[in-house]
Design goal:
single chain, about 130 residues, mainly alpha, globular
């Protein structure tokens, strides 16, 4: 998707705008399908319908906010190239945030503290026979 946004910044004219819209449409659908597949994989079955519904709600709300509040002013200020640059910035910020989150999940947990209980003394944590 970022490639098609870059194409929109560099291109000019009706032909490149149509090609850009086609690329954005295809990449949007690829993102939507892969995101839905990921959601199904990571969500327990009883919660899948609710999670998918919340995802659709969030996507619709973001689309409404973007088209009503952001796209118009950006298009009027700088046309399609400015809109493409703004969307590329959103993509980069999202990629950086996701990479940082993935990196923090890979950090190994600290080892558990060693108990002061010796092997000869009974422990309160262990079940008694």
């Amino acid at each position: 998707m970022t490639g098609s946004l870059a194409f929109g910044v560099l291109g000019g004219g009706v032909g490149s705008d149509l090609a850009l819209l086609a690329l954005v449409g295809v990449s949007w659908n690829l993102h939507l399908v892969s995101g839905s597949m990921w959601l199904v994989e990571v969500t327990p079955e009883p919660l899948r319908n609710r999670a998918e519904g919340l995802g659709e709600l969030a996507m619709g709300a973001a689309a409404a906010a973007g088209s009503l509040g952001l796209a118009g002013p950006l298009l009027s200020l700088g046309g399609l190239p400015l809109l493409c640059l703004a969307m590329a910035a959103v993509n980069v910020a999202t990629a950086v945030a996701l990479a940082a989150r993935a990196r923090s999940r890979r950090t190994p947990a600290a080892p558990a503290p060693v108990s002061a209980v010796s092997a000869d003394s009974p422990s309160r944590d262990l079940p008694r026979p």
